[in-house]
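Q: what sequence does this backbone want?
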């Protein structure tokens, strides 16, 4: 981090994170470096040797994400990957081996059950418990790694990261937190005691729905060396164009997050107050089961709201009636999206469960669209 960013606010940090020192006539954010190999006479030393190992465009982005995840902290390293699942897999498979035990959430991202099957095929014991109520705490004895997803996707439950991390550390267990939904502006897992903060940069971090990216940020040099080795072996690297687009997008992160989160609060409150009982979940609602813990460890509550309509048919009619909201998967983009999450079959949710990602549209327009769609779908 440059001296000018010490003590900087989120907006200043996001705009300037990872930029190189200024050089006359050079761009403030250098363009993507497209290179499979680099000039390398003599011994293979130096930062850039081969395109699968390092790239200057990755370096700028990795520094930027590290400055957002752990501002002011030395010894933190970030590695970028081709997707969020590439980053998740890198931590799990670099830290665990046959005979080890890992604790996963049973209500997390829908690909985790596939990961569980692969871990078990490699002789790794997998224990699972819900995110809410810190239920994973009871499964830590003898575990090598605890995987936390908070808020959980799509249920939006929250667990106490500090409490779980302290308990894990007392047992010699590593802790990884999936920080995708919160983003570094909403939550800083390393400051809460985690060893790894892992995320899909595909979502709100980049925010435009045009980049697949993942990253791992960690503060243990040995553990991160293993993650780096896994990336080298598997080759799950981002392209330079994707890395450059991601870095470019970080400049608006604070503006996007603040706008989207504020609108999500408005949408959640309107859904909560709707004449029907919709089972609304949003950590920012004072009455939400997640609110108390979320308000203690999150600086912003996210852009995702969930609620449940009575039937699958009603949910489909609601989605069809929306005019400003795309029926699409993923979340965190500047354009609002919503989907009936049960259509994928991987989440333990009712058929009418809606995951709603609030974008950057004018909140009054978005709210009007949601209301008319609820009314239209009820006919």
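A:
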């Amino acid at each position: 981090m440059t001296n000018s960013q010490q003590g900087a606010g989120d907006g200043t940090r996001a705009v300037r994170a990872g930029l190189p020192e200024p050089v006359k006539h050079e761009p403030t954010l250098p363009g993507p470096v497209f290179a499979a190999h680099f000039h390398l006479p003599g011994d293979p030393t130096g930062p850039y040797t081969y395109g699968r190992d390092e790239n200057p465009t990755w370096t700028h982005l990795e520094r930027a994400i590290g400055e957002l995840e752990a501002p002011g902290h030395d010894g933190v390293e970030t590695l970028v990957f081709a997707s969020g699942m590439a980053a998740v897999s890198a931590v799990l498979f670099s830290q665990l081996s046959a005979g080890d035990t890992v604790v996963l959430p049973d209500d997390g991202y829908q690909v985790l059950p596939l990961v569980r099957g692969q871990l078990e095929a490699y002789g790794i014991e997998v224990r699972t418990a819900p995110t809410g109520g810190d239920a994973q705490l009871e499964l830590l004895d003898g575990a090598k790694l605890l995987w936390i997803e908070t808020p959980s996707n799509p249920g939006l439950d929250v667990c106490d990261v500090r409490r779980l991390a302290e308990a894990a550390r007392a047992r010699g267990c590593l802790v990884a937190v999936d920080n995708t939904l919160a983003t570094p502006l909403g939550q800083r897992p390393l400051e809460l005691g985690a060893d790894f903060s892992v995320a899909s940069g595909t979502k709100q971090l980049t925010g435009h729905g045009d980049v697949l990216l993942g990253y791992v940020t960690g503060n243990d040099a040995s553990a991160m060396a293993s993650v780096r080795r896994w990336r080298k072996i598997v080759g799950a690297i981002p392209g330079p164009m994707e890395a450059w687009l991601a870095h470019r997008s970080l400049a608006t992160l604070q503006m996007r997050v603040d706008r989207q989160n504020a609108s999500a609060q408005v949408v959640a409150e309107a859904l909560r107050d709707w004449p029907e009982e919709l089972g609304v979940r949003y950590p920012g609602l004072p009455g939400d089961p997640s609110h108390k813990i979320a308000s203690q460890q999150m600086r912003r509550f996210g852009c995702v709201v969930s609620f449940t309509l009575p039937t699958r048919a009603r949910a489909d009619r609601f989605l069809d009636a929306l005019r400003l909201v795309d029926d699409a998967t993923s979340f965190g983009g500047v354009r609002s999206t919503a989907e009936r999450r049960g259509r994928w079959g991987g989440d333990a949710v009712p058929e009418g469960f809606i995951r709603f990602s609030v974008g950057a549209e004018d909140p009054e327009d978005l709210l009007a669209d949601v209301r008319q769609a609820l009314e239209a779908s009820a006919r």
